Amino acid sequence: MREPITPPQLSPEIKQFFERFIQVVTATVRAIVQAVAKHYPALRVIVEREIARRKRIAQLSYRKKKSQAKNWRKWRKRGRRTGR
C-alpha cells in the first residue's frame, strides 16, 4: 500500500507574504466597491447617456445607409431608361 500524500508545508515567510497580499487585495477591492457605490448615481447617468448616444448613432447610420440604397436604386432605374 502507498502511504498518503501530504501537501508540502509552506515556510512561515511565504505564508506571511500571501496573508499580507490577500489583505492588500481585499482592501483595494473594498475601496473600489465603496467608491463605485458612492458615485453610483453619477456613473449611472454617464452610462445611460452613452447608451442613448450609441443607439442614436446606430439609427442615424441605418437611415443613411437606407437613403444611400434608395438613391442607388433610383440611379440604376434612371440608367435603364436612357437605354444604356
Structure overview:
By secondary structure, the protein is mostly helical. It has a domain at 26-81. 82% of the residues lie in helices and 0% in strands. The chain is built from two helices and no strands. The protein has helices at residues 12-38, 40-81. The longest helix has 42 residues, at 40-81. The chain is elongated. Residues 63-84 are annotated as: Disordered.
Which tags fit this structure?
84 residues; mainly alpha; 0% strand; elongated
Task: Offer a concise description of the structure.
This protein is an all-alpha fold and 84 residues long. It has two helices and no strands.
Shape: elongated
The succession of helices and strands, N to C, reads HH
Query: Tally of extended strands?
Result: 0
Rounded to an integer in angstroms, the radius of gyration calculated over CA atoms is 32 Å
